[in-house]
Amino acid sequence: MTSQNPLETRVSRPDGPVVTDLPGTDTAHTAAARWRAVAAARGDAIAIRTPEQFITFADAAGRVDDLARTITATADPGRPVAVEIESDIDSVIAMLAVLCSGRPLVLLDPFLPPDRRDVLLERSGAQLLDRSAETVPGSTDVVEPGPSDPAVLLFTSGSTGTPKGVVLSQKMPVNHARDGRRFLGMRPADRAVVLLPLSFGGGLDALAMSLLNGSTMLLWDVRRRTTTGLRDWLVAQEATTAHCTPSLLRSWLGELSADDAVGSLRLLSTCGEPTHRADVQLARDTILADGVFCCWAGASEVGNLAFNLFPPDRDIEPGAIPVGVPASDKSVRIVDANGDDLPVGTTGEVLVDSAHIAVGYHRNPEMTAARFIPLPDGRTRYHTGDLGRLDEFGELALLGRSDDAIKIRGYLVEPLEVEAAIRALAWTTDAVVTADRDEARLTAHVAVDPEKWSPSPAEIRQELGKTLTPWMIPRDIVVLAELPRNERGKVDRAALPPPPARPDHEPPRGMTEMALHRFWCQILGLESIGRNEDFVELGGDSLAAAKMLAEVQHHLQLDVNTAMLAEAPTIALFAQRIESAARERSANASGATLIPLRKGTGRPIFLVAGAGSLATSLTPVVRALQTDRPVYAIQSRGVEKRGRADHSVRAAARRAIDDIRSVQPHGPYQVGGYSLGGFVAMELAARLTAAGETCDPVVVLDSLFDPALARRVRGERMGVLDRLRARRGDTQDTALPDRTGDDPAPAREPLPQRLVKEVVLAVLVPTAGMVQLPTPVQWVVFFRLGTRMIRRYRPRDYGGPVGVIRARTNPDDPDLWRQMSSGEVTFHDVSGDHISMIRAPHAADTARAIDEVLNSPAP
To answer: pTM of the predicted model, to two decimals?
Structure first.
């Protein structure tokens, strides 16, 4: 089945006149001939420009010819020549010179590990180009290559196995230039910014589509320069087109706003990875106010495969964007396992028929014969091994490798579709989903935006459950700050951290375990959980724990608490504990505020939790600590079990001291706290030292100063209104943070609703802990109480050392801590924001900072 090109009916061309070829280039059928014809036609026009220098077509042609003669004189005919490629003028000259010499070009990336570089040189048998060698006089003859002669020996990334050398012919770059004219409207007047590394296929294609059409190629080395100043350079150079990967697009444009639109930019294209609707919208919201967005796909073996253009008025469907209509001289078929054509909309293997695809694999005739099939009309059929489908418009959607698809519970699941659903979540900045065929399960690695929220795996699974069937939801989800990438910018799957190891699956036993299994599955977003699997490692955070405990207490009528879950984090152990508590009415069921989070040896560490948070909120950080000392967390009285809450930092400190001394009667003590808990820790440390005890450095985890407290610490006078607010603890920050990221700027509630809320809170806050409330309401009440406690706090001077660990979004003046302590104060900045710093993936960074404070030498 040959796809129908819907360009005229569905996809608009870029703005501008119909593009005609340059004079003298219509008979150029090789990369070498095409370059010479373009250079002759463009003469003194600028061919290549970097931030430091530029070169004209005429001067570039002279340098290319000189170097081509040197290569001809010093390299054996037919032997590949390897060139170390940077994003600079010298590298482009060297690439063109090798192409014009008739020798196959091998691209060496400077970011390649040394062992991989050695493998490429050994497998290709290439001679490394010495650019410092003297130029051979002009009498040396350069043999003109033919259209089917090898031009480039392009090695695949090796992400799915051993790198393969793909042999590209001289006529393929000419076809790419044709694609540049037909789909991207490339013309001599264009100033094309190539942000793709020239040492891999996408960069090589972008070079052909721009330079071989007479456009000025603007080179900016993102990997060395980063994106700082890039947008301003585009403006200064009046760039008309830009070409990059989706991952670079996200990291770059995420720093920009609508005020950063580049008026001259008519087209922005991406390749190398799937492009999603959010990518197009991000471009439209920043640099590409009125231009065309193009996602195009290709592969080492086929070159350009398809193009999909999005003018400003074209709508975008959710999920991964189809790669579009087939490229020039590319006929696409979708077939089943027997090679039979499949109907429109049906998923199957993608086959490509063309006269402009690779010759085969270097020194591998068996693999070449299996994948490249000669056709009677002189074209070649390539079996891509990719899954895809064509829609009624002839647009191709790629769905990943056929060997990536996996059957789960009898259903065929394509990881790329699951990946698209994860990317649609507002938190997600990047994602990759992998399949384990042996265990029939999916693993998702998700990079999140901590500016919105760092979700737990449980939250991610809950959100996915709204759009995916249960068997498509990954069992294992690893939350990261960013995905590891190789030198080509592709996800480095070998470097993805493995999910936590899980024990062999054992089904629940007995009625209590069966009931717990139901609650845990519901809250953690899993279909099945083994009785020996850990609640936290399954993705359960503090909120999930609170919900689970509330469900257990309500449905089983059993008195349960955080201490039980911390000590017994599996269904089997937790069932034993709650059954024991029911029989014995143990002390743990009385609402303890001291919760053991980690067993160990030596002096214990005591950490005070934040306002409204259960002790288990600190579990991810505690588990990442390198110390083997026992760790206890102290949570507010009444937050979990009925009991009157403390209403001042001093009262909370007194109660915490009683908890601490019940475990460790005398010092030296190691104390710390998160958020409100940091102020409590400072207070209790001051009280302990006043009583003759000693304390190690107090660990303060991102405790934020209320303006009233900040003025008090500085010794500034407070106005009447400030004093009234401090007494009442007024604050507008009473809503739960936006856990979905869907509403980053929620509308202000109507005045009547706000008044009702304030009246209700005015009643609930003074009685906090006396009545058990629904989990979200309980959080708000204790959060409001904690804010009031900070506003009213009158700190005493603490003379010991303090280690302040701050999230990167912390706005406070560091001198405030120096005024609260006459001892040495050290500061440690960590990744994440106030909330995400104690959650994955940032918890490990926070734990490292705590270890640094714990191990600091005594002053």
So the answer is: 0.64
